[in-house]
TrEMBL record, chain A:
The protein's name: ABC transporter permease subunit
Entry keyword set: Cell membrane, Membrane, Sugar transport, Transmembrane, Transmembrane helix, Transport
InterPro entries listed in its UniProt record: BP-dep_ABC_trans_perm (IPR050901), MetI-like (IPR000515), MetI-like_sf (IPR035906)
Entry superkingdom: Bacteria
PANTHER family to which the protein is assigned, alphabetical: MALTOSE TRANSPORT SYSTEM PERMEASE-RELATED, MALTOSE_MALTODEXTRIN TRANSPORT SYSTEM PERMEASE PROTEIN MALG
Transmembrane residue ranges: 37-63, 100-125, 137-157, 169-188, 226-249, 269-292
Residue ranges, compositional bias (Low complexity): 1-27
Origin species: Streptomyces akebiae
TrEMBL record, chain B:
Localization annotation: Cell membrane
Name recorded for this polypeptide: Sugar ABC transporter permease
Pfam families in alphabetical order: BPD_transp_1
Membrane topology category: Multi-pass membrane protein
SUPFAM superfamilies in alphabetical order: MetI-like
Top-rank taxon, per record: Bacteria
TM region positions: 34-56, 109-134, 146-166, 192-215, 255-274, 300-321
PROSITE patterns: ABC_TM1
Matching InterPro entries: MetI-like, MetI-like_sf, UgpAE/MalFG_permease
Amino acid sequence: MSTTTPTTTGGTTAAGDRQVPRTPAAPRTRRRGENSLAGSLASHAILIVASLAALFPIAWLVFLSLGPDKDDYLHPGRIFGKMTFANYSHVLQETPFFDWLVSTLVVSLGTTVIGVLIAATTGYAVSRMRFPGYRKFMWVLLVTQMFPVAVLMVPMYEILSELRLVDSYLGLILVYCSTAVPYCAWLLKGYFDTIPFEIDEAGRVDGLTPFGTFARLILPLAKPGLAVAAFYSFITAFGEVAFASTFMLSDTKYTFAVGLQSFVSEHDAQRNLMAATAVLVAIPVSAFFYLVQKNLVTGLTAGGTKG
Amino acid sequence: MTVAIDRATGKRRGEPGGRPGPLSRLKQSYQRYWYAYAMIAPVVVVLGVLVLYPLARGLYLTLTNANSLNSARTIGANHIEATYEFIGFDNYADILWGPTSYDRFWSHFIWTIVWTALCVALHYVIGLGLALLLNQKLRGRTFYRLILVLPWAVPTFVTVFGWRFMLADGGVINAGLEALHLPAPLWLEDTFWQRFAAIMVNTWCGVPFMMVSLLGGLQSIDSTLYEAAEMDGASAWQRFRYVTLPGLRSVSSTVVLLGVIWTFNQFAVIFLLFGDTAPEAQILVTWAYYLGFGQQPRDFAQSAAYGILLLAILIVFTSFYRRWLNRDEQQLAI
């Protein structure tokens, strides 16, 4: 019972409402009962097994991407003798990889920009103002988030084909906005909730309108939240499969999620190339992800943790 | 100060002249609401155009016999007008109690429920276990955490391909099982193992989110509560049961709801793992997609009807879930 640190977080965990200071979670040494040796060995053992389970499929994909033949995934032992980056250079030089990169970026960034821009004021409004219809509106936002792809897919396909937007970036961006916008609004509400209301009050006292308060005081403070919302809608659009594979017809306009599949269907299952493409796609996204993942969770669950 | 008042009066010029008392209060609230409605207007417009209109149209489609042969379409330069007809609730009746309704709807329905329940339970239990381990004072826990988040960091469509390599007959998993003299199931062909594999892959994909969320929840529990519990002689289990779990309650209820919604609608894992090859392992979402876009002729009406049914199921579930949470909260509060 070594009472190590009653001091570190003494006052900050406002157990009640509205935990104002978003406490950095890491530097907290809170277990007072030090683990027994057996206990910590067991913990390490479990964590190591879990880490291996988490790591292995990815590592395996990377490993297979180094084998030059398309059947190497069945005989991984052979890869050791002939590891090469040939798959990568092939993918980069002779497949529509860069076309896919362009369309993925256009679609994802388009969705992100529209989603965040439109959702920001809404997030602020639902965070600060209790207007009539507020609960219904929140409910609509939640329900839109749970739309199964199948609900909107058929009517959207009809509408887009009437507007001649099938197989166009704009069409796909519009479709993704239907999920990104409510999502961002929800996320941003959670973030705005963590900004103390006193700041708004100060702004009002100094003579700002609600819009002014929002634009001049809250938005600059909410930059991390905006970044999280942007990132989340980006990766959501980036990884979406169902709409992308239905609405994009010409293979230069595929996003990665669709393009990757085309290696199996059209090019006689060139699994080695697929693996290399997958790795090329995954590395930048994952690297980026690591930078923001901690904020992501706060953003996602903040709305709910308020209860 | 004066500026604020000027602007405020400017905003409510439509109101009749101010009288003291309830009317001025009304005006005050009207100002607040004016701002609120102006601020949510863009999202309302976008949702109206991009969600509600297609939804209304989808609802209408479910009452017709639309398919890819009688819908409006353009072949070359010729534009063919839609010729589908209004048939009322026949689609729903056919899906829910038509002659082959069990094979088409109810079997998928049951499997979807099982899939959702198992996946979310596994996500939650494994995620909580790992979060508890990572919340201890442990050497290298940051390192473990970074690795354990990996499945979440890599896009799903990439990892599912990785899994397909591993699950293929002759892939590394079966090679490993054979080396251990265990039977090597046909993961991608046999119905039971298809389902097993789908749950396994989805669990692998979903645990990190739960783990990180619950870890955040654990770290926000006031440590003095544990000290007090320890002083009172609570065992480790009692501390977990009466301090940790209630402390995690709000985080848990959120992530479980999100988890259910996401898993229920999980399209990518099943679609990319099996494509059209595994009719028995399709959950309702992928099955609806198959009806609308994976077969010829494409049955738009039935696909849309499935979509509406799915949405109805989720809305019912969420309403009950929230009511249950609220009731629970009142019991706790009193």
